[in-house]
Amino acid sequence: MASNEDFPLRIEAVTAAWAAERRAEDDIAAVQTQEWQLVYVRTGTIEERCNDKRVLLRSGSILFHQPEEVFGMRSMGEIPPEVLRMDFFCSGAAMDRFRGMVFHAEPGEQHDLNWLMKEVTELYDPPAAPGEKPVPREEVAFGARQQLAIHLENLLILLARRCKRPRKPTLRVRRDRRQTALVEAARAYFAQNLTHEVKVEEVCRAVGCTRTQLQQAFRTKLRHTAMEEFAAMRLDYAAQLLARGTTPGEVAAQLGYCSGAYFSQKFHAATGNTPSAYRRMQQGLPARRQNRQQKDKEAPKTSIPETEQKK
Length: 311
Hints:
single chain; 311 residues; Arc Repressor Mutant, subunit A; 43% helix; 21% strand
């Protein structure tokens, strides 16, 4: 009979699983899990609650909730996050390695994660509301649930092997991670404060860094300053509001621009369109007719009067 050393991680049951793109309003209220729960973010960014701690998970991040842990989710940023969640029972002391750990998927693990995301949609109907459990489908392919457990086991084994690596990150790697974390934290703060102007100092206080550290992080990662990123995010949000039918004046007021003219100037510089023209294009409406004076200016003119040409 095989020993526990030969099979250190065994999936006893997958009790629920769901993979879907989450809208900004699809936040999950705090709830306690009775099993282990795998959380994988394929695209976008979320803030995950782990008891009293908050963890920011970006694209490619993997996290495990341990049994009896309180979890919750909040969408962050402008990209709708695509998230995989799997509740499962697993025996073996090796699961202790995952407590409090956040991984970033490597190529070998990505294969199992992509397979799981696809297969989960074939085995479970999505929950009726965010935070509720998905419904297992009655008719599934032969051995499909066993395959699901096998791929999950393989993923756990690959991740457990990484936990044993004694490699210490270099100074360059630590600095790179720090800068990435600063940019993500600042962008999350920007996303929550798009309706008014913010100053560099208050961003630094919110994310816990100096002005120099913040600017170096943004120039290294995004090739522009933090305030340029904030301005771009505000204009992206303004474009979304205009596309929904909000008038330029309402957008300028809602986002706290000092005047409608200033907003129009910034929007035109960024997009090449005035807010009104962009709004009409997004709604499929024809462009406004040019006034007569503008038409006269654009009409071709000859240097010789028509009466002289007749002579």
